[in-house]
Every structure is written in structure tokens, then in C-alpha cells.
Design a protein that fits this description.
Layout lengths: L1 H29 L18 E5 L18 E3 L6 E3 L28 H12 L1 H4 L20 E5 L3 E6 L5 E5 L14 E7 L2 E7 L19 E8 L4 E9 L8 E9 L12 H4 L1 H5 L10 E3 L2 E3 L9 H4 L3
Parallel strand pairs: 6-7
Antiparallel strand pairs: 1-4, 1-11, 2-3, 4-5, 5-6, 7-8, 8-9, 9-10, 10-11, 12-13
Length: about 325
């Protein structure tokens, strides 16, 4: 008991220090002179290039400790959580790295029913996360997945192309008609406020998540992004998130994005739809490759042969 209490206090202390460091970093970011910023011919910050986030928001927007796996089950002794059967063979590769959150205040203000659904999503991540099925990731999730993306900037349009799933979006800097439907990546309309590109994103469907931790939204999602240069090769990215169907108030995420500086930096195709066909359609096979399906949920049973106990402790 004493050790558990001591470990808990250590975790709290580390979290507090990381939060203070994050606040200090955010303040120092704002002090970077913009005279170093690359600019286009018309004087606007030039965001053209290949960019990538460098954090753990992809796994969980909030501060989180390292975990054995995203999918857990009761183990021994005393029901301690262990990696669930479908991912146990991945070992450390299937683990979740700990990391500092990117949510302002580290709180996502769910309505009570939505918080319960978020937990349910988390516990059933393997069956529910749209990323696993190679669906478009949505906004803002596309901005901090562990894959590069490219920005091509014009005077009236800004194009973003993402390596994952060949996803893409257009930010309209000119007058356009409202989007007539719902879209995975939403509908983006931008404007300049000094050196900051402000993007209003609406017309989402409800099929994307914010991360692998089960954080979700409805089709009432409204995202306001702010892209502010903080040097020649870095952007301070902010996204304010509103969804009155799911959250009690708006909330914000913030992180730096970094320009890829390799001489031959480029995007490669990651046509993951073809790689996800078994997950999407495997239950329709006459002779399924997976041992058992329940509807569209694959049930993977992993049986390990345990040697006699005298062999486990050979001297």
C-alpha cells in the first residue's frame, strides 16, 4: 500500500512539472520574432512545404501514462490489466507511449452521457476507431497523426495533402458557397488576421475521432483553427472545438508543427484502404481468415502453450 501511494504521488509530481514546462514553452513560443518568417510574394507567411507534428496527441489528446496496450483485459494475479488477446503478440510494439497532453487545462468537457460513450469507445478501440479502417481522419486529427502532410499555398486557396489514406482538404480564402453536405474533412474557409491564418471548419459527419483514446464528436462539430508562424520552420497550431451535442463548452488544443527539412522530403502514398480490406470485409468471406466474427467484430483467440512449471524455473 505504501509503495502504491508513493508511486501515485510521484506520478502527480511529474504531471505537475510537465504542465509547468508546457506553460513555459507556450509563453516562450509567443516571444519568437516573426522577422524570421518566410513570406510569399504578397507578404503573407509562406506555409508551403511538408510538415509534421511531434507529440503523442495521436494516441491521446490528454496527458497520459504509458500503457501495456490500447486494448486490455484482466490478467493474473488479482485481475491486473494485461494486453488483450488480439494484440498480445505485438509486445512492446502494441504499447502506448506516455505523453504530455495538448488540451488547454487537460480537460475535455463532455456531457455525462458522452463521457460514458468516450470510455466505451476507449474500451472497444480495436472495433471502433475509424483509423483502423483507413477512413479519412477528419480535422483536427489529421494535423497530428504520425505522418507528414504537405501544404501548397496560393493567394485564394490553401491545399493540404496528408500521407495517411491520401486524405486532403482545401482551405478557401475567397468567397465560396456553403457546403451542401457533410464531409469527413469538413468544409474549410480561411482568412488572415495579421500573420495568423484563421480557418473556420464546418459541415462534418460524425464518423471521425480525435485520437486513439476514443474522444469523439457529433455532426454538429465546429472547429476554428489558427496557424501562426513562430520561426522559419515552425507553426503554432491551435484548434478551438465546439459541439453542443457532446460537450458542455468549447475547448482548445495547441501544439507546434514542424517543417520537414530533409533535402528530399516528400510524401509517399499510403493507400491503406487496400491494407484494411480484411478488417472491412473479412466477415463476408465464405471461409473467414479470422477464427470467428460477431457481426463486423473479429474475435481473435490467442492460445499459448505454457510449459510445465518445473521447466519455468530450471536451474
Amino acid at each position: 500500500m505504501r509503495h502504491r501511494f508513493r508511486d501515485s504521488m510521484a506520478v502527480l509530481a511529474v504531471t505537475a512539472v510537465l504542465a509547468l514546462l508546457s506553460l513555459a514553452a507556450a509563453r516562450s513560443v509567443a516571444q519568437v520574432p516573426t522577422s524570421q518568417v518566410r513570406r510569399t510574394a504578397d507578404g503573407q507567411p509562406d506555409f508551403s512545404g511538408i510538415w509534421q507534428a511531434n507529440n503523442t496527441a495521436h494516441w491521446d489528446l490528454q496527458t497520459h501514462a504509458a500503457q501495456t496496450a490500447r486494448v486490455l483485459q484482466a490478467g493474473v494475479p488479482h485481475g491486473a490489466p494485461v494486453a488483450a488477446a488480439p494484440v498480445v503478440a505485438l509486445g512492446a510494439v502494441g504499447g502506448v507511449p506516455g505523453g504530455l497532453g495538448v488540451v488547454e487545462g487537460n480537460e475535455i468537457p463532455y456531457q455525462p452521457w458522452a463521457l460514458a460513450k468516450k470510455k466505451e469507445n476507449h474500451d472497444n478501440w480495436l472495433d471502433r476507431d475509424p483509423e483502423i479502417k483507413c477512413f479519412f481522419p477528419g480535422v483536427p486529427r489529421a494535423m497530428y497523426m504520425p505522418y507528414p502532410f504537405q501544404i501548397v499555398q496560393g493567394t485564394k486557396k490553401v491545399e493540404m495533402v496528408f500521407e495517411f489514406a491520401n486524405a486532403h482538404r482545401t482551405i478557401h480564402l475567397d468567397d465560396v458557397d456553403p457546403y451542401p453536405n457533410e464531409a469527413w474533412m469538413g468544409h474549410s474557409v480561411g482568412r488572415w488576421e495579421g500573420d495568423t491564418l484563421v480557418v473556420d471548419v464546418t459541415s462534418f459527419n460524425d464518423a471521425t475521432w480525435f485520437d486513439r483514446a476514443g474522444n469523439f464528436h457529433s455532426n454538429a462539430l465546429h472547429v476554428v483553427e489558427r496557424y501562426t508562424p513562430i520561426g522559419p520552420d515552425a507553426i503554432n497550431y491551435e484548434a478551438t472545438i465546439e459541439d453542443p451535442n457532446v460537450f458542455t463548452r468549447s475547448w482548445k488544443i495547441r501544439m507546434p508543427l514542424y517543417r520537414r527539412l530533409e533535402e528530399r522530403a516528400q510524401l509517399f502514398e499510403y493507400r491503406c484502404v487496400e491494407m484494411a480490406e480484411e478488417v472491412l470485409y473479412g466477415h463476408l468471406r465464405k471461409q473467414p481468415l479470422v477464427k470467428r466474427w460477431e457481426g463486423k467484430t473479429m474475435i481473435v483467440d490467442v492460445t499459448r502453450k505454457v510449459p510445465p512449471i518445473d521447466q519455468l524455473y530450471e536451474r
